[in-house]
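Problem 12. The chain below contains 128 residues. Write out its predicted structure in token notation.
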Amino acid sequence: MLPERLRIVLIIAVFFYFIMMCVFLKNKMLSLKYTLLWLFVGVVMGILIAFSHLLVFLNHLVGIQNSMNGLFIWATAFILCILLSLTSIVSKQTNKIRQLIQTISRLEKRIRDLEKENNKSLEEKEKR
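Solution.
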């Protein structure tokens, strides 16, 4: 079990965490789909802190002897999951940026070619 003082401090920390997430969402510092991921992790951690017997059960299920170590390991696991999902998002965004750059380059080339054609046709009209 978690010590009572630690549980209170962690519950207060989770409360401020939720306030911070709401502020980020309100000020549009994070989009909704990313905020949902962070809120989900916060809810799970809040449940594990508030109901420490559930934390003890999960620790025993996995084979972790100490509740403090278990809390640390579960927090690390959630952080790794978030990092994995954010890495996936960054990879997708990188591919989209690459595609956009290629499209813009093609369009710029097309514009330059059309400008050249237009200039040639204007020169031919002037010669007549």
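Discussion. The chain has a mean pLDDT of 87. Students who got a different answer should revisit the alignment rule from Section 12.3.
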